[in-house]
Design goal:
The complex is a heterodimer of chains A (about 140) and B (about 375).
Chain A: E1 10-11, E2 21-27, E3 32-33, E4 51-56, E5 59-68, E6 80-87, E7 92-96, E8 110-120, E9 123-132
Antiparallel strand pairs in A: 1-2, 2-3, 2-4, 5-6, 5-8, 6-7, 8-9
Chain B: E1 11-22, H1 29-44, E2 53-57, H2 66-70, E3 80-83, H3 89-102, E4 108-115, H4 139-154, H5 158-161, H6 163-172, H7 186-191, E5 194-196, E6 199-200, E7 209-218, H8 219-224, E8 233-242, H9 251-267, E9 276-278, H10 284-294, H11 302-308, E10 318-319, H12 324-327, H13 335-348, E11 361-368, E12 372-379
Parallel strand pairs in B: 2-3, 2-4, 9-10, 9-11
Antiparallel strand pairs in B: 1-7, 1-8, 4-7, 5-6, 8-12, 11-12
Helix pairs in contact in B: 3-13, 9-10
Classes of the chains: A mainly beta (about 140), B alpha/beta (about 375).
């Protein structure tokens, strides 16, 4: 799989006072999903204009995590941590932790979006990560 | 409304065969597949000319591998189809072979799975939708996340979950077709290579190659070819489904629960009546989740029962008597068909050192990424 185009997945605009938002969608039936797409609603099958883009809060609760020790590709470099997060706005998503390892991470704690700069095809791009809200003041 | 397999004419497994599951080698895939098919024909006391149609399960060989293998049994111009359904490819091939016989289209049909490790990109990664994790979440990390969630919810230790692997390696050590044939202590399982979260390499299925074949027949096929009806095992139920919206992180357990309930209902049995069960235990946590999902024990009760030996060969219900995916292996295309072979051996009383006493009812379960789920109930 190619590295996903992360710029379409989150946005900084309109969030000067807060963390990056996730670019999700809402169907006319009320189903909220991430990421935004117009192929069709997996709940009811409506498509096209029935699906509108919505910004989802970059906050959520940590449901589970796993520190990865073995990875077939050079990126991300091991060890890194994968998170399962229930967003405050509904969808359950998976994301990577920043910093890549945090020994104090606890299931049930609040998490929030952040960005890190990553070198991709010769240029720096902002990539979305999640960090602990209560990270001891970092 | 549709109907169940069991409402159509009865279908029986009459022949089973394997090529041992093993690490990747230079052996060409037809050699693997032909060994399994010839063993299944020989087990059934059938000649190839009796097989009216073939279902070839493969997920990794590439397009149209079937005839390049089957022609060496005699290219007779019979229909064949390839079935790819991720980890459940073999289970799907078996189901559709059963449907063909149950519908009365054919009396004797082959389902064969054959695979070798190789490149097989997941189509979903080309769906054009982004992801925050890209290729960073492979199956072992998905199941490491579920392990973490289960440990939190039920207050068990990762050490306890590793006991699943100890049991399955013990069973695999007694299976001549298993890829891993070595008993392992809990300490060895825990000290094996860390993979993701608390999962270690001996709690994860190995990659490998192999083949499994089963021959399915109607009562008419058994009669016409003079087969031994006493060794024929009835397919009592076949259920299949796929993931629905909002199924959550643990979608494999959700679809398993639904497919298990449908299959048990079709077979008109309760979970307590199952003697032998083969599950998609690619990672140790899965055996807990699917056993609980099937209702064989209530949620959170798996570990105490495992420690009492309830799921050992000879226990209340032998789970993964073959060694399961953890020890027998998971070459993908063959896996679901190999499970049917194991259950058939058990119900015939021909499982040798792995025989579960008085096994009468067995169940085979697979999930595949996507996600899809298949459950078959066999009985004698």
């Amino acid at each position: 799989m190619n590295e996903p185009v992360k710029s379409r997945l989150f946005a900084m605009d309109g969030t000067s006072a807060g963390p990056p938002v996730l670019v999700g969608g809402r169907c006319a039936c009320g189903y909220v999903f991430f990421p935004m797409q117009t192929y069709g609603c997996e709940k009811c099958g409506r498509h096209g204009d029935a699906l509108t883009m919505v910004y989802l809060s970059g906050r959520g609760m940590l449901r589970a995590f796993s520190q990865v020790h073995l990875h077939a590709r050079p990126h991300p470099q091991v060890p890194f941590t994968v998170l399962s997060i229930a967003l405050d706005d509904g969808p359950l998503i998976r994301a990577l932790l920043e910093p890549p390892v945090d020994p104090d991470l606890c299931v049930g704690e609040p998490m929030v979006t952040t960005t890190v700069q990553q070198r991709h095809e010769g240029r720096d791009i902002a990539t979305l990560r999640f960090k602990r809200v209560n990270d001891g003041g970092h | 409304m549709g109907t169940h397999l069991s409402a159509l004419r009865p279908v029986y497994v009459v022949g089973i065969g394997w090529h041992r599951y093993q690490p990747a080698s230079d052996t060409p895939y037809p050699v693997l597949g032909l060994k399994a098919i010839r063993d299944a024909l020989s087990d059934a006391h059938l000649i190839w000319e009796a097989v009216e149609s073939s279902y070839v399960a493969t997920a990794r060989l590439g397009m149209a591998g079937g005839l390049a293998m089957l022609r060496h049994l005699g290219a007779l111009g019979r229909p064949l189809v390839h079935i790819e359904n991720a980890s459940a490819s073999g289970s799907a091939a078996f189901r559709h072979a059963c449907i063909e016989v149950a519908a009365g289209i054919s009396d004797v049909v082959l389902a064969v799975g054959v695979d070798k490790p190789g490149g097989s990109p997941r189509a979903a990664s080309q769906a054009g939708l982004g992801s925050l994790v890209g290729g960073a979440v492979v199956p072992f990390t998905h199941f490491a996340l579920l392990t973490n969630a289960y440990v939190q919810k039920h207050g068990v230790s990762p050490r306890d979950i590793a006991l699943v692997a100890v049991k399955n390696h013990r069973n695999g050590a007694r299976n001549e077709n298993a890829q891993r044939r070595q008993e392992r202590t809990l300490e060895e399982v825990l000290a094996s290579r860390p993979v993701s979260g608390t999962l270690t390499s001996l709690q994860c299925t190995p990659t490998g190659e192999g083949a499994a074949a089963v021959i399915i027949a109607s009562a008419e096929g058994i009669r016409r070819h003079g087969l031994d009806a006493g060794r024929a095992i009835r397919v009592a139920a076949s259920a299949a489904n796929s993931e629905w919206a909002d199924a959550g992180d643990n979608h494999d357990q959700a679809i398993t629960q639904a497919a298990m309930a449908a299959a048990l209902d079709e077979a008109q049995i309760t979970p307590g009546q199952l003697d032998v069960v083969e599950l998609h235990d690619a990672f140790s946590i899965e055996e807990l989740q699917y056993t609980e999902g099937a209702g064989i024990c209530p949620p959170g009760h798996f570990i105490p029962l495992l420690k009492e030996g309830a799921f050992d060969i000879g226990g209340q219900c032998a789970i993964s008597a073959s060694g399961g995916l953890i020890a027998m292996g998971h070459p993908i295309g063959p896996t679901g068909i190999g499970q049917i072979g194991e259950i058939t051996q058990q119900l015939r009383g021909e499982a040798g050192a792995r025989q579960h006493k008085d096994a009468r009812v067995g169940l085979a379960h697979m999930v595949g990424v996507g996600a899809v789920c298949y459950v078959h109930v066999l009985s004698r």
